[in-house]
Each structure stands twice: as structure tokens, then as C-alpha cells.
Design a protein that fits this description.
Elements lengths: L4 E5 L4 E7 L5 E3 L9 E2 L2 E3 L5 E3 L1 H5 L8 E2 L2 H4 L7 H9 L3 E4 L5 E5 L2 E4 H20 L5 E6 L5 H13 L3 E7 H10 L5 E9 L4 E9 L2 E10 L4 H20 L7 H17 L5 E11 L5 E9 H25 L9 E5 L6 H11 L12 H12 L9 E5 L4 E4 L5 E5 L4 E2 L1 E8 L8 E7 L9 E8 L11 E8 L5 E7 L5 E2 L1 E4 L3
Parallel strand pairs: 1-11, 11-12, 13-18, 15-19
Antiparallel strand pairs: 1-2, 2-3, 2-4, 5-6, 5-7, 8-9, 9-10, 13-14, 14-15, 16-17, 19-22, 20-21, 20-24, 23-26, 24-25, 25-29, 26-27, 27-28
Helix pairs in contact: 4-5, 6-11, 7-8, 7-9, 9-10
The structure holds adenosine monophosphate (AMP).
Length: 504
């Protein structure tokens, strides 16, 4: 009998695996010590050993240069993109330009690609799952953020291949959360998945009709997450210390690291308590060599005042995305929470105000995505009685660059997938040999501000005068948001093969 297909939530901060039994009951795969999540961290220690998960996390402060976290945010992005500039400011490891304008990370003196790093994390989940289930796991359904573009999705497939894990299907995280909520209900409702994790925010509107999960619209902000809440609190702590002692701790990296850790802990505790003491002993030296401690009490209302503008931003997105779905907030039947930062009471209260209903308690913000992936995985098994239809949308437009460097839109944002369109190209030179087209993904108006998916070349065109050879190119986006192209000579019907190159 084939081994089960597991579900994997490949998260930015933590990853989690889940599996369904033969009755469709899902269990999260426990890691050593009973934890259900594995930190998405990879490191190489000074002896050259690979460390993944808790082992990597434990030694992070001592070995920041060789400890990689947040890799998911860099997978499949161009070196020139804003996210890379942001990450370089925030991380201790070296990020450099790779061969194909992608990214290379230097860990333990080795140049690694992002797919190598993601593959180690997938490999770890697979290893944990195999030992828990007592059989060699070979196949998985893996979730990705709804905003992931074609390149990023391809990157996840490659990462799986590198560790011999067949990724049978990629599904979007919000869709997985909706599956966790509605898989066993014969229901007809619209749900909003409000996902605020460590680094990103997104909202998706999904309609569930019996077993059909249709994404109506999706959108978000890749620069808004829990880390921004931490930063707001850190600024407050620094300014309070400066007022009391006239010392700016921002210039002291070791003090900053300690404050960062403490600020996050205090932020998390403030979700359960109204006041939390914050204490970091011997944070610095006063003039005369006297050690100074950092001591203050942080109240929940202080944190709320400091971060209200961040919460407001999420509701700007909510208003836009719900409008794009053709709905009003009051027409959303359930709000599902995903991501650790949604535990903040202010967020839950604001959701209740905005949607006119409290968020659903029936899915767990840290577990829903892995559970949904495992349910989907089980639905692919012949023995399963579950069958789902997932109808998704493209998170960003896909366009081709025209000769004048402007864009011709092939698929608009929020268009349903799978989808197909065709464009007829005519040669513009005598005996033109090939047809080259650059394809980008993004909603920006210019080529430069979008992500290059690839340069496709159809070679060996039939010889003929300018304008006499017509090539019809069919662009297909799969249900998973992955683009493929075919072309044929319209007059002879000959199919043409292509090569793809990704570069700047
Ligand atoms: P995720 O990416 O979903 O694992 O979310 C991680 C983010 O959630 C981090 O910024 C955490 O600080 C934040 N977080 C986790 N638990 C809580 C909590 N109880 N209250 C507020 N934020 C939290």
C-alpha cells in the first residue's frame, strides 16, 4: 500500500506537518517534546553540521551569520526587489546576488540557493513524519501564501525534488484554512481568512458551496506583520530609556538583540494580560562604569496605541479585497484567523467591529493551514470519501513586455485559475529566426516594477518576409497558478518548443 500523502504548512516562522487517517481524521505530526511546529530555521554550525528547526534556533544568537530564518520570504524573488533590501537590514546572514538574478545565501562558507534551504525544512518535516508514522513518507501537499508568484511556486516544487519529496499539489494557505473550517460541512457561506503572521498580512474572501472552495478575491501587504508590532514596541522602549538615562541603545547591537527578544515576549504576553513587566538586567553602562538595567512596565493600552496604525492598514486591505469580491463586510458569514499575531485582542476586537461578528473559534490560527493541507491530501487518496474542488484566483496580473517596453496584460489580478488566453504574433523582420518574449508578474504598470517570470524563446521560425509568419502562443495558468506556454505556426500548424531563461 502506498504511504500516505501528508500536508505541510511551510511557514515563514514555523512549519508544521499533518496527516489524515483512513476516516479523514487529521492529526498534527508531533515533533520531539510534543511540539507540533518546527521553526523554519536552517544553520550550519562551526563543525560543519547541518541543523534544522529547534537545533538551529537554539544556537542562533551565538551563530547569527550562519543561521537562516525567513527564507520563505526570499524564495523565488529577484535580488533587486524591495524585500531583499528589507531582509538585508534585518538578518545576520549574507544575502548575495545569484546566477540568474536570484539570491544566494552564504551559510557555513557555502553558497546555497533558497530552494536548498526550503528543501532542508521540507526534509525535516518529512523525517519527523516518517518516524512518527513508521513509514517512509514520499508525497506531500504543500501550502504557499496566496500572493506567491509563478517563480515562487516553482521554487517550492524544486525544493521538494531536492529531498525526494514529491509535491503532489500546492494549495494556497487561505484556501487550506477554509478547508479546515468547511471540509465536512455541507454549507453555503462566504468566509474571510484574515492572516497576520510574522512578516506578512493577507486577506482572502472564499465562498464555500458544498465541497467547492472558490477564492473570490485576495490581497495583502508583504511588508506588514508581527515584526512591525515588535519594532513599534522597541522604539517605545528605546525612547523611554533615552528619556530616563540620556543613552541611545539603538547603537549597541548586543543590547538591541536583547531588547528585540524581550519586546516580542512582552508583546505576546500582552495578548493574555493587561500589564507586563519588562526587565533586561545590565543592558549598558552609565558614565563612570555603573551598570544600568532596563526596567519598565508595559500596558496593553500602550501597545495598542503604538500599533493602531498597523492594524488600521490591515483594514484598508480588508475593505478593498471585500469590495473586489463584490461583497460588503456584513455579507461575510465567518472570519477565520490565521497567523500568530491575530491573537492580539485589539485585532480580534477590530475584526468584530469591521465585520459585525466575532471571528470563528473553530479553526486554530497556527494549525488550520496544515490541517487543511492534510485534508486535501486525504481527498486525493482513492480510499477517501472527500472530494473537493478548489477554484483559485491569480494574486497578481501576468503580462508580456511589448516592443515599446510597455506591458500587454494576459491575465488580470483576481482572474480565476485555471485559465488560458492566446495571442497571435507576427514577425516584423524578413527571415526572423526566433520569437522572444519576456513575461512578468505583478500589478505595477512598468516592466521594471514587476517580477520577471522568464524570457521565453521560440526558435526556428519558418523563413519568410516580415509579417508573413504568424505564431499563435497559448498561455495557460494551471490551477496552482503556474504558467506554461505553447506556440504554433498558424499557417502550417507546426508546434514549436521553447526555452526559458530567467535573468534580469
Ligand atoms: P506566524 O508567522 O503565524 O508563526 O506568526 C508569528 C508572529 O505572531 C510573530 O510576530 C509572533 O510574535 C506573533 N505572535 C505569536 N503569538 C502571539 C500572541 N499570543 N500575541 C501576539 N502576537 C503573537
Amino acid at each position: 500500500m502506498k504511504s500516505p500523502i501528508i500536508g505541510i504548512d511551510l511557514g515563514t516562522t514555523n512549519s508544521c506537518g499533518a496527516v489524515s487517517d483512513e476516516n479523514g481524521n487529521v492529526t498534527l505530526i508531533p515533533y520531539r517534546g510534543g511540539q507540533f511546529t518546527v521553526p523554519s530555521i536552517f544553520a550550519i554550525d562551526d563543525k560543519g553540521n547541518d541543523l534544522v528547526g529547534y537545533e538551529a534556533q537554539r544556537q542562533w544568537q551565538l551563530n547569527p551569520k550562519n543561521t537562516v530564518f525567513g527564507a520563505k520570504r526570499l524564495l523565488g524573488v529577484n535580488f533587486e526587489s524591495e524585500i531583499v533590501r528589507e531582509m538585508i537590514k534585518r538578518v545576520g546572514y549574507e544575502i548575495k546576488r545569484g546566477d540568474a538574478d536570484d539570491i544566494t545565501i552564504v551559510v557555513g562558507g557555502k553558497d546555497l540557493r533558497l530552494t536548498d534551504i526550503s528543501s532542508r525544512i521540507l526534509g525535516k518535516i518529512r523525517e519527523v513524519a516518517s518516524s512518527y508514522l513508521g513509514e517512509d513518507i514520499k508525497r506531500a501537499v504543500v501550502t504557499v501564501p496566496a500572493y506567491y508568484n509563478d517563480r515562487q511556486r516553482q521554487g517550492v516544487y524544486e525544493a521538494g525534488e531536492l529531498v525526494g519529496l514529491e509535491i503532489v499539489r500546492i494549495i494556497n494557505e487561505p484556501t487550506a484554512a477554509a478547508l479546515a473550517y468547511g471540509a465536512r460541512k455541507n454549507t453555503n457561506e462566504s468566509v474571510a481568512v484574515y492572516d497576520l503572521g510574522g512578516g506578512t498580512f493577507d486577506l482572502s474572501v472564499i465562498s464555500i458551496r458544498d465541497r467547492v472552495f472558490e477564492v473570490r478575491s485576495t490581497g495583502g501587504n508583504i511588508f506588514l506583520g508581527g515584526i512591525d508590532f515588535d519594532n513599534a514596541l522597541i522604539q517605545y522602549i528605546l525612547s523611554d530609556f533615552n528619556t530616563q538615562h540620556g543613552i541611545d541603545l539603538a547603537t549597541d547591537p548586543i543590547a538591541m538583540q536583547r531588547i528585540r527578544d524581550m519586546a516580542e515576549r512582552v508583546k505576546v504576553d500582552l495578548s493574555a494580560r493587561h500589564e507586563v513587566p519588562l526587565s533586561v538586567p545590565f543592558i549598558t553602562m552609565a558614565g563612570g562604569g555603573k551598570p544600568l538595567d532596563l526596567n519598565m512596565i508595559v500596558r496593553r493600552v500602550d501597545l495598542e496605541a503604538l500599533t493602531a496604525h498597523l492594524v488600521d492598514k490591515t483594514f484598508d486591505t480588508c475593505a478593498r479585497v471585500i469590495d473586489e469580491a463584490g461583497l460588503k463586510p456584513s455579507e461575510i458569514d465567518q472570519v477565520l484567523l490565521v497567523g500568530g499575531q491575530t491573537r492580539m485582542p485589539l485585532i480580534q476586537n477590530r475584526i468584530a467591529d469591521f465585520f459585525g461578528k466575532v471571528p470563528s473559534k473553530s479553526v486554530h490560527p497556527d494549525e488550520a493551514v496544515a490541517i487543511g493541507a492534510a485534508l486535501y491530501a486525504w481527498s486525493l487518496d482513492d480510499r477517501s470519501d472527500l472530494r473537493f474542488q478548489l477554484l483559485d484566483v491569480l494574486p497578481m496580473a501576468i503580462s508580456i513586455e511589448k516592443a515599446d517596453a510597455t506591458l500587454h496584460r494576459l491575465f488580470g489580478r483576481n482572474c480565476s485559475v485555471p485559465n488560458q488566453c492566446q495571442v497571435t504574433f507576427t514577425t516584423h523582420r524578413d527571415n526572423q529566426k526566433d520569437l522572444v518574449m519576456r513575461i512578468v508578474q505583478g500589478d505595477a504598470a512598468t516592466v521594471h516594477d514587476n517580477t520577471l517570470l522568464g524570457e521565453f524563446t521560440f526558435a526556428d521560425l519558418r523563413p519568410g518576409g516580415a509579417g508573413s509568419v504568424r505564431v499563435e502562443v497559448v498561455f495557460t495558468v494551471s490551477a496552482e497558478g503556474i504558467l506554461s506556454l505553447t506556440a504554433k505556426d498558424l499557417d502550417t500548424g507546426t508546434q514549436m518548443s521553447h526555452t526559458v531563461k530567467i535573468e534580469s
